[in-house]
Specification:
Protein name: Protein kinase domain-containing protein
Structural class: alpha/beta
CATH class of the largest domain: Mainly Alpha
Pfam family, one: LRR_1
Subcellular location: Membrane
Keywords: Leucine-rich repeat, Membrane, Repeat, Signal, Transmembrane, Transmembrane helix
Number of domains: 3
Largest sheet: 6 strands, mixed
Strand order of the largest sheet: 1-2-4-6-8-10
Number of strands: 22
Bound molecules: 2-acetamido-2-deoxy-beta-D-glucopyranose
Transmembrane segments: 218-244
Amino acid sequence: MKMISITFLFFIIIILTSSPSYAEDDVLCLKGLKNSLTDPSGRLTTWSFPNSSSSSICTLTGVSCWNAKENRIISLHLPSMQLAGQIPESLKLCRSLQSLDLSDNDFSGSIPREICSWLPYLVTLNLSGNKLSGEIPSEIADCKFLNSLALNDNKLTGPVPFQLTRLNRLQRLSLSDNGLSGLIPADLSHFGEDGFTGNNGLCGKPLSNCGALNGKNVTVIVIAGVTGAVGSLCVGFAVFWWFFVRDVRRKKGYGAGECKDDGDWIGLMNSHKLVQVALFQKPIVKIRLADLIVATDSFGSDSVVVSSRTGVSYKADLPDGSALEVKRLSCGYELSEKQFRSEVNRLGQIRHPNLVPLLGFCVVEDERLLVYKHMVNGTLKSRLQGLDWPARVKVGVRAARGLAWLHHGCETACLHQYISSNVILLDEEFDARVIDYGLGKLVSFERDSNDSSFSNGDFGEVGYVAPEYTSTMVASLSGDVYAFGVVLLEIVTGQKPVLVNDGEDWFNGSLVDWVSKHLSDGGSKDVVDRSVIGRGYDDEIMQFLRIACSCVVSRPKERPLMIHVYESLKKLGYHYGFFTEHSDEFPLIFNKQEP
Ligand SMILES: *[C@@H]1O[C@H](CO)[C@@H](O)[C@H](O)[C@H]1NC(C)=O
Ligand SMILES: *[C@@H]1O[C@H](CO)[C@@H](O)[C@H](O)[C@H]1NC(C)=O
């Protein structure tokens, strides 16, 4: 038995590690960087680029790759090298970059506004200790995955952009020792005094009050003063916007949907309070947008359930004690309102015990909201650590059942396209329910026409994107299976899909790479979450791991169908008896009734 399983794992590893090598963009990125920077102490002279594309750039000073076999850079750490020049545009060719550290050098000029469209997956950005000037661009809030942002010890001026409050994954923020001024946005005060000191003009919590007044009063006074003056300007500006800015935006190919800043869009919602929320089943009481605004505390940050590529969802507590989940779709969709309505109506017909039912929707100008039933136990991602092994098996089996139904049970196969541990929600019985299915048609992300490089955000969440998408660019059922395999790996390992904690250190690569590395070293038990191993389930865990690995093999054709993944997991979990509550029969007929 052992022998068989080892051979099987070995086979999987071979497939896992033989993924195709990537484009040469990352090589050009480093070349561009080297050419545009001044390097007085010759620290980058060791950067040489042999001309065959198969040779690796991964061993160059400061460069780390997702894995050793492909030239795809995950982090670039060049601190304290006396490098000078502007932050170079060629960085945009290092699109997979997650960590950029240019600290303690002589970089000057301003922080490029485009930095987050160049590097959308940044998790850490350290530009501290340079000579950067100008304002902090508000677009830095577009780096949605930022965990740590250090801009301290520069010559930055202007305000702290309130958009930074949108970065809901931010754990560290350091803006100290610059020339910043103005009021610190209230939602940033928890980053502590050290993050803001050494800026003469900055005030408000956690620093001292602004003058004799406290922060709040200042805001009120400023708003009161400005409103009068601005009122008369507004009409003029609106006309200007309509004829000019809007036109430019359209020409730039932004598509129909335009994202508004936080303040703006809530204002827009408020001005359409009476719009009725369209519900698929006859509601007992009508719900208006105003009800959702109240129930989500004006779409406040405390109501955010999860924020993902497809949008931000909010918990809405209704007066009768029930709760809904309202999802504000990311802008950038191409569908007209009519197409959108018909597509959403189709999704609204889908009912399955392991899918979160879509209850309704609401359209206000370019804003589109989807209304789902709320799941009390939140996302698998947030709950995983607290689940014992049997509970994890249940989630795996049941989520697979929902997805298998989407793939094989619907009238026409329905792709999910955004599978991650954030779209598997847990209901009151910790049963899994998949949300966000079918959003692929509703959201599509703007692509720069000059940029032929593939942006994997179009095909799912970072860490879940199947390797073949770089060349096929077409979402597929087997791509969903890959993403689900990553979720299964999370369940076994307790790790995140990217930023894997490898003992003391962060592993350089994805969860799939990390697992395959350990398996090839013969340490299959090393990858299993410590909180579930050695409690009498080890054999079952190994079988589960094998199923997970079969989903993430790099050749799409060799991955099982979702229905087979479900069948294998079901067999493995059968003795737990969680098939009694619902009929075990797989509903292969399209079923419009609520079960
Ligand atoms: C690149 O290839 C050419 C011919 O194929 C060769 O002459 C040259 O030396 C190579 N350059 C490097 C840096 O390897
Ligand atoms: C940024 O870099 C500086 C200097 O290299 C280092 O001291 C600091 O800890 C870094 N900050 C963060 C947030 O990583």
